[in-house]
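Narrative summary of target 7.
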Amino acid sequence: MAKLLLIQLLLLVLYVSGHERRSIRFQKPFEQDQDGTYGLCENEFGQMYYYKEYEGQENVCGKDVAKVKYSNRINETGWAFVEVEVSGRVIEPYQQGYAAGFVEGELLSSQKMLNSLVIKTLSEITFF
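Modeled conformation, tokenized:
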């Protein structure tokens, strides 16, 4: 959060001070370790929890509600891929929508994802 505020302050100072044309470039591309499959699960008491699947891990969820598969290929292709799957156990359309929106939102709202968006956007902007 502090980094984001610092970047906003820097942008304001550059805009107000009227410096010559400047461009911000970042030394290395943003990398994140979030590739993988994430899921929303229901335990035996009806409570929901969010988890990440790891390769070689036995199934940690008895009652899957929804899963999201994420692959960040922004540095190679310019795209990040998100695939959402809702369990057949969830019958009502509004529940399917809620479950799909929850797992996607939980993944994409992380601080790293927001930082990636800000850094990617700022690296393409030229300041006057």
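The first helix runs from residue 2 to 17.
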